[in-house]
Amino acid sequence: MKGVVLSAILIMLIGIFFAILLWQKQRYRKQLRKLNQDLDRLLQQGVPLPIDQYQEGELSILANQMEKITLRLTQTADQVQKEKEYLADSLADISHQLRTPMTSMNLAVTMLRSPELEHNRRMELTAELRNQLSRMDWLVETLLKISKLDAGTITMATETIPVQHLIEKAAEPLSIPMDIRNQQLQVFCHSEEIRGDLSWLAEALGNILKNCMEHTPAGGFIFVHAEETPLFTQIEIEDTGEGFAPEELPHIFDRFYQGRNASAESYGIGLALARSIITSQNGTIQARNGEKGARFMIKFYKQII
């Protein structure tokens, strides 16, 4: 009799066990169907997953991980969309910048085809063609450099550079234009040094000096001061021009931005390239109005920031 009772209890326990298993299985199926429906709403309508409706356990962890993955995919999609919009805007800006020299070149070519054109005028138009081609070549080359810097495909050299030597190399192409304008470059350096790529940094500082030259009146000055601290080496470049309008300061280093006093031949990308180079060399750059005119504050840090 005792054995029969024990057998009955054992059968009942086994039945309860399988009932619990069946109930758990049905509950998980129901939750999986609900999770599937919630995922469909998330993907189709963007409705967030109701994580709080799922009980603690593996299913809750799975739902939480899915929400994280979906959030990451959404952020990636937003970033891709922003990059597409930026690319479209950049292409529009490039097209606009190329249109002006191309229009001038087409006009010059049309006039050069005239057999009645005087020799002196023909030489003037030929020189204009050469000038416009040089401008377009510089624009395309600069845009390629910026793109490579953005993509991180350029390997920069790392060498110790005396600031005095860097300024001299950067200012060398400007010696004749500054002489024509009767402008003076005054450099106040001692034994300051920075670490970086001489050629690229010379191009960056050359673009800044060129900007100062173009906005400094005839007979004006451009000052360069260098200072070295335990944390960084600072280079200040200041001119005696009109400085920046307050509304221009937030956009000085934006690509294709042209201020109120921009020259007719300006593309608005020289300072953008300068910033890209400087930041790639563990540096920062700021623009502000100084005591005399425009001032550029450049810092090259000795440790990675």
Task: Explain briefly what this protein structure is.
This protein has 305 residues and is α+β, with helices and mostly antiparallel strands. The chain is 57% helix and 14% strand.
Total number of β-strand segments? Answer: 7
The succession of helices and strands, N to C, reads HHHEHHEEHEEHEE
Mean pLDDT: 78
Strand coverage percent:
5-15%
Radius of gyration: 33 Å
Cα distance, first to last residue? 84 Å
Largest sheet: 5 strands, mixed
**Number of alpha- plus pi-helical segments:** 7
Class by alpha and beta content: alpha+beta
Task: Name the helicity range.
Answer: 55-70%
Low-confidence stretches: none
Instruction: Tell the overall outline.
Output: elongated
What is the strand arrangement across the widest sheet? Answer: 2-4-5-7-6
Write a structural description.
It is a single chain. The chain is of the alpha+beta class. Helices cover 57% and strands 14% of the residues. The chain contains seven helices and seven strands; from the N terminus they run αααβααββαββαββ. It has helices at residues 2-45, 58-112, 119-151, 163-171, 175-180, 198-214, 270-280; strands at 159-162, 184-188, 193-196, 221-228, 232-239, 283-289, 294-301. The strands form two sheets. It has a five-stranded mixed beta sheet. Strands 1-3 form a two-stranded antiparallel ribbon. A hairpin with a 3-residue loop joins strand 4 (221-228) and strand 5. Helix 3 packs parallel to helix 7, helix 4 (163-171) crosses helix 6 and helix 6 (198-214) runs antiparallel to helix 7 (270-280). The longest helix has 55 residues, at 58-112. It is elongated, with a radius of gyration of 33 Å. The termini are far apart.
